[in-house]
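tool=predict chain=A
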Amino acid sequence: MLTRVLGTTGLCGALIACGGGDNGSGSKESTTGNIDTDGASGSSGGTGSTHDDGTSTASTTGTGATTVGDETTTSGTGGTTGTTGTTGTISTGGSNATTGMTGASTGDVSGTTGGGTGNVAAPCGPEPAKNAQGILTSHPNLSIDIGHEDFELLSVTILPYIAASGIDTLDLYAEVMNIGLEDHCSFLFDTRLDGLEIIVLSQTPPHRQEDFTTTHGCLRPGETGILTGIQNDISADMIEAATTLQFNMTSLPPLNPLSEPTDAPTVNAVIAEGAEGGYLVSGTSTPNAAIYNYVMSFYPRDSRGLLVHELLAFPGDLESLTAGITLEFASTESECQFDEYVFLQGWIYEE
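tool=predict ok
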């Protein structure tokens, strides 16, 4: 039994009653937003500790440095040297300064990356590497094939875990780029890990087609989309032993000419700590047209350069929204600390 919502695309027809899709599809896709960042200050360092070989001790308090903008925080300065013991010398040092607060982000349609912290977040898994096809991945032992001559995979993350029900489960996140010369829409996947099926959906920047009110899931030349996948009963050992990952991607041309929305909601966002102890994205969004079924998707990127989660927000709870209204939002949380993310948003226009 699948228990996780699989991104904006998967919501169409399942959770959201989306408008007419292209080529007979009822799906609704997400859209990207331009993000510019300004980090605020990191907090101060902790108390310096002492280490002694002698009988007398001394300690002092170290002071952490702070940062502004995208620079990393520095370690706290050490305390003064302790006094000499009877048989050894005591030395002290301040602890590292904690991670700086995250930078603010703003955007409309075309940007994809947001956030930026005063310090680099800890990685959320083993060190990645490029596989034989040159794809950055958490599992470089895999031979990975997108299965479409006009598309190229940039990164692939596979995250095995035990679900609350006790079932072996995996999440998959990938970045795919249109390297061809044509527009492509209506993506489908028959994804297999050594023959084992993984359910995969796509999220893309927003595009309008003539005679449609939805923002469609298409990728134009040079654009990048996000793939999200999930499956049960595939263990970490099975993933480590696997040798091939095949997406078998197919697409269709758009029914009508595509155009870029000029009235996408304006978003101001920051990365913050959540009430449950995780990390989330929060801020405000202002629609610039009358819309409904508005969904925001954030894909955290950890310090390894890999996407590690899908965080969702629903400003207005999918209801009708008037142009110019400012809505507050907070996404779902990730246990993984991150300092940047890919942002997509999607909606349906009021007729």
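Residues 7-38+104-349 form one domain. The chain is about 5% helix and 35% strand.
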